[in-house]
Amino acid sequence: MTDKMLAPGATIGIVGGGQLGRMLGVAAAQLGYVTHIFAPEGDAVAAATAQHITHAAYDDMRALGGFAGQVDVISFEFENVPVDTMRFLAEHRPLFPPVNALAVAQDRVEEKKFAADCGVPLAPWAEIRSTAALAAAVADIGTPAILKTARDGYDGKGQARVDSRDGAAAAWAAIGNGRAVLEKKIDFSGEFSILLVRGQDGEVRFWDAPENRHVDGILRQSIVPAPRAMADQIATAQQHAQRLATALDYVGVMACEFFATADGPLFNELAPRVHNSGHWTIEGAVTSQFENHIRAICGLPLGSTALTGRAVTMDNLIGPDADDWAAWLGRAGAHLHLYGKGAPRVGRKMGHVTRVEAA
Ligand SMILES: Nc1ncnc2c1ncn2[C@@H]1O[C@H](COP(=O)(O)OP(=O)(O)O)[C@@H](O)[C@H]1O
Ligand SMILES: [Mg+2]
């Protein structure tokens, strides 16, 4: 044990109360840590795997101070926690990944500027703050294109397609006329994500990159390994992702989404946290993304990211998909995960199923 290691028995504070926090809690418990969740929602599904929960608003300074006083290290599982909240917490306790990674990932304009500064290729894009800027950007980038809110988008929300110059104003209105980015619609051969973990000593490990299939902007399925045809693009994208992680002085698990195109990989976005396209690692890798995130933030040596089988498929159970949960129990080799959410609303991630093909 070295100075930097946080010994089991210590308390890990996690800001955010969703399924990512719930699965981090399982991994933390396996290693003997205590988890304390901070979440505003009364029905936070992460509470089920945590010993302590603070239900309070993200700007409740008293509650934040109390939380910081009861934990030994802090991380977050929700991407839209206010940056000021995390800065405040970082003044009191070690916080991983760094606040700057959150700030960059929260804002598509900052994220794209940052990636470009790191020499990572992106789809053509422009920042939109006015009708004039929108018209100029559509003329420059062309159609079809996609308008995305600069902040608060997830699972394809806050996006509108622009199919013609005339349709641009209506598309912007459909996402609220706020600060946005216009992006060229990319004719990709597929999508994949780079999943990496970076330790406090700067060591980086990659899991096999999954190919990701989205339906209506929501991840539907991840398949590992990605098709052989994507191998070169994945190797290049790993270098891009590592540059981003190094520039952020990142600690923990980070995911970067890429489009595979005829001209090589284009960076889409990064998540400064464990990611849905890495859920397969619970059964499909020697060390899961959740365990390696806990290891990294606690200063422990990182675990092997090798596959446990020949191939892995992860299917999300979205909305009413979860009604069939019992059927999965009868399928050999299927690992069912349910997040304990109440009503299976359309578009809501209720659980997932992982299948590992033996080597
Ligand atoms: N420029 C684009 N060209 C083609 N498809 C896109 C583009 N941007 C987004 N998409 C599709 O929409 C999905 C969700 O978009 P993304 O920007 O990743 O938003 P979110 O934050 O909601 O995940 C992508 O995974 C991809 O399938
Ligand atoms: Mg995405």
Task: Characterise this structure.
The chain contains eleven helices and 17 strands. It folds into three domains: 11-95, Rossmann fold (3-Layer(aba) Sandwich); 124-184, Dna Ligase, domain 1 (2-Layer Sandwich); 190-357, 2-Layer Sandwich (D-amino Acid Aminotransferase, Chain A, domain 1). The two termini are 34 Å apart. Helix 1 packs across helix 10 (289-297) and helix 4 packs across helix 5. The protein has helices spanning 19-30, 61-70, 83-92, 99-106, 108-117, 131-141, 168-174, 231-247, 281-284, 289-297, 325-329, and strands at 11-15, 34-39, 52-55, 73-76, 125-128, 145-149, 159-162, 180-184, 190-198, 204-206, 211-215, 218-224, 252-261, 264-271, 311-318, 334-338, 349-357. The radius of gyration is 20 Å and the shape is globular. With 359 residues, it is an alpha+beta fold. Strands 9, 10, 11, 12, 13, 14, 15, 16 and 17 form a nine-stranded antiparallel sheet that branches. Strands 3-2-1-4 form a four-stranded parallel sheet, with helices on both faces. A four-stranded antiparallel sheet has the order 5-8-6-7, with helices on one face. Adenosine-5'-diphosphate is lined by residues 123, 146, 148, 153-156, 183, 185-186, 191, 214, 217, 257, 268-269. Magnesium ion is lined by residues 257, 269.
- In CATH terms, what is the architecture of the largest domain? 2-Layer Sandwich
Give the class from helix and strand content and strand pairing. alpha+beta
CA gyration radius, whole angstroms? 20 Å
Largest sheet features: 9 strands, antiparallel
- pLDDT average, as an integer? 97
Q: What general form does the structure show?
A: globular
Q: What is the share of helical residues?
A: 25-40%
Work out the count of structural domains. Answer: 3
Classify the fold: give the CATH topology of the largest domain.
D-amino Acid Aminotransferase, Chain A, domain 1
The CATH superfamily of the largest domain bears the name ATP-grasp fold, B domain
- Please report the number of helical segments: 11
Beta-strand content bin: 25-35%
Bound molecule types = adenosine-5'-diphosphate, magnesium ion
